[in-house]
Write a structure and sequence with these properties.
Low-confidence stretches: none
Number of helices: 15
Number of domains: 2
CATH class of the largest domain: Alpha Beta
Helix content: 25-40%
Strand order of the largest sheet: 3-2-1-8-7-6-5-4
CATH architecture of the largest domain: Alpha-Beta Barrel
Structural class: alpha/beta
Length: 435
């Protein structure tokens, strides 16, 4: 695993691209000019002035000049990292050379932008030898301008089967004296070009979801000590679908996603953070239904689950047409099998603090209890779920808190919004808890 990385962030939630030059506009730099002034939750963790797919080939030379102008003017105040995407292609040396020339121009200290550039994004990479070619260009640029090797981090877009297979070589290649691949930062999925490279088709013409690619990218990043980011979600009005995609990704260990609009940036910045309030979820087959909280009780008002009290402490439970005759304990057990609890930030911090105190007193495991009252058709049932916490559970619980700490450390422009979201006390306890 790469232990000498050239960057500090452990998590990236948002990867926001903006065209560097818009054809036919009086101000061709208007998109990156606007993006450079985003702040707070609207500002991404990684901003990508995109001089590749988002910018017409005829405008790319102007795009480089726009990067230099905007970054030199606004880079000092931009709260995230800045990683321009330059042209590259595994099969086209002319395009690779063009990208190299653009990198030289952006990195020239006389242009006053490089002080604020954290790295570059390289698209359309191929096998591991192609990654090394890109890395060598970075090293040449650094040496030309007297910068330490590794000054620029390198992120790559996984847009081909070759690049997907190359991720398996990273553990062996990173750290060899013949390359500077320690500079690698993000592995970003590019499902559109990946679909083209795979010659994949769907009946509707829409993109496949490629869960295998997302899994492989997350695995490759984990094995090499890098950060995985999912590709763009093109339906920018489908916020619910965007959330579902991010939820699926987080279950794979992929906490970051491409954002195409400031609204998507806000959603993606907030989604991985622990919720402010805990919630109870009712699982019915493949559906998850969040219960409505009312005065400490959890209310279900749907029709797929019904409860009728037929006699004293005797009930009929109907689940999608199937009926069960149960006493109160049996009803409670059936409900518990269908209920899951989503812990809040406060819950997570409380549990971690409780386990740390138990460890100090010599205990290796403790039970953490969550309880509530569930109400269905006016019938109230008290439920209680116990979860055993040991060292492994404690370490797993640190992931969302570690993400929060990373955000708090690297995004001071979001401190006010985080404190408003959770409260100052919870924020400080979250910062202090954990190793």
């Amino acid at each position: 695993m790469n232990t000498n990385r050239c960057y500090e962030r452990e998590f990236v939630r948002t990867f926001f691209t903006s065209p560097t030059a818009v054809e036919g506009e009086e101000d061709s730099a208007k998109m990156i000019r606007s993006a450079a002034q985003l702040r707070g939750m609207q500002a991404p963790d990684v901003w990508v002035p995109d001089n590749e797919d988002a910018t017409a080939p005829s405008m790319r030379d102007e795009g480089v000049k726009n990067i230099i102008e905007i970054v030199s003017e606004h880079g000092a105040d931009f709260p995230g990292e800045i990683h321009p995407r330059l042209v590259w292609h595994r099969e086209n040396p002319t395009i690779r050379y063009q990208g190299f020339q653009h990198m030289l121009e952006v990195a020239d200290p006389d242009n006053n932008a490089i002080e604020y550039i954290d790295g570059f994004v390289i698209p359309e990479v191929g096998d591991i030898d192609d990654w090394k070619k890109a890395d060598e260009f970075f090293t040449i640029v650094e040496n030309k301008y007297g910068l330490p090797e590794g000054s620029f981090s390198m992120s790559v877009i996984i847009e081909s089967g070759e690049a997907e297979l190359a991720m398996a070589d990273l553990r062996e290649e990173i750290g060899k004296p013949s390359n500077n691949l320690e500079r690698l930062f993000l592995l970003v999925d590019g499902e559109v070009d990946y679909t083209k490279d795979m010659r994949a088709m769907t009946p509707t013409g829409e993109l496949p979801s490629w869960p295998e690619l997302r899994h492989n990218t997350s695995r490759g990043a984990s094995a090499a000590g890098l950060i995985a980011v999912d590709g763009p979600y093109d339906d920018i009005r489908d916020i619910e679908g965007y959330h579902e995609r991010m939820t699926e990704n987080r279950a794979k260990g992929m906490n970051g996603i491409w954002s195409l609009t400031p609204k998507q940036v806000v959603e993606a910045n907030k989604a991985p953070l622990p919720p402010k309030a805990g919630s109870w979820i009712l699982e019915l087959d493949d559906r998850e239904i969040e219960l409505e909280e009312d005065a400490g009780r959890q209310i279900y008002s749907g029709t797929e689950l019904r409860i009728e009290e037929t006699a004293d402490e005797q009930y009929t439970l109907s689940v999608r047409g199937n009926e069960y005759e149960l006493d109160r304990d049996g009803l409670r057990k059936e409900l518990l099998d269908m209920l899951v609890y989503v812990p809040s930030m406060d819950d997570i911090v409380d549990s971690m603090e409780e386990f740390e105190a138990a460890k100090e007193s010599g205990k290796g495991a403790i039970a953490i209890t969550q309880s509530t009252t569930v109400v269905v058709d006016g019938v109230e049932i008290d439920v209680k779920k116990d979860r055993m916490w040991d060292e492994a559970t404690y370490q797993a619980a640190q992931t969302p808190v570690s993400l929060f700490k990373d955000v708090y450390k690297n995004r001071p422009d979001q401190h006010e919004e985080l404190e408003k979201m959770y409260g100052e006390d919870i924020v400080q306890r979250a910062i202090n808890v954990g190793s």
